[in-house]
Give the backbone structure.
Amino acid sequence: MPFSPALQARGVQLLLGRVMSRVHKDLRFTDIPAHTETLRVETGAGTVTCTVYRPPATADGPPPVYVNFHGGGFVVARAAQDDHICRRIAATAGCVVVNVDYAVAPQRPYPAPVTQAYDVTAWVAGNGAVGGWDGSRLAVGGHSAGANLAAAVCRLARERGAFSPRLQILDSAPLDQLADPASKRSLVAKPLLTPQLMRIFTAAYVPDPADRGHPLVSPALADDLAGLPPALVITAENDRLRDEGDGYAKALEAAGVPVTHRVFEGVDHYFTHTGPVAAGKGAIDLMATSLRNALS
């Protein structure tokens, strides 16, 4: 008798969670001091803990703010895996970074992570005076599953009109949860993401197959992209998710959304964490530069 999707996802959490969250030693940026504090935000799907990274002090008023969502297939709950990116961006882009420890499946499947991601971002946008940042100069972004959530936040922000991100950063995003993972090809024989692992992630995060084509789950399947925030889309040449990321960048551009799209050659999924180091640093610096320009 096969294990249920929820049980398989719990196995990934227990057996692979720590491995999936490792960061290459030369990408940890240990030379950058971390000025952090803990923030708890009440959302429609429970309390969410966030880590706030502060930039070097300036005399130019409150800094802008970037809301970051970590990856992990919607299953691995380790926001600290993005510590290196958050510290680097805070130090070099001159913005506050709010790193969101959102709920994960199978304990909290869709739509709970989307609700939390949006509500935290809305709170950040509306509480700059409390937090010590300029909520009107706000960007969102993430890595892998977190990039999917960032895209969902941008759709909801457009629909509800409570705030308007100046930039969305989508790094190695899963954007089509309806397609069979086996149909997503890689240029290498053994890419990091296997169809079996991707099926576990999808089945745990979106248990009802009828929800998998929803725009908040599969942004690449939406046909109403006009009016979304400007985007930095990062894809990896050897990633199974590359084609949907490349396609989403083109679709955004066709809808009139300003897009910067960069394909990093010779790398696989999550290279911003696992390397190669030169490519990982290049992508993180591109994020920081893009944020600095968008939020200035």
Observations:
- The two ends are 57 Å apart (CA to CA).
- The chain has a mean pLDDT of 94.
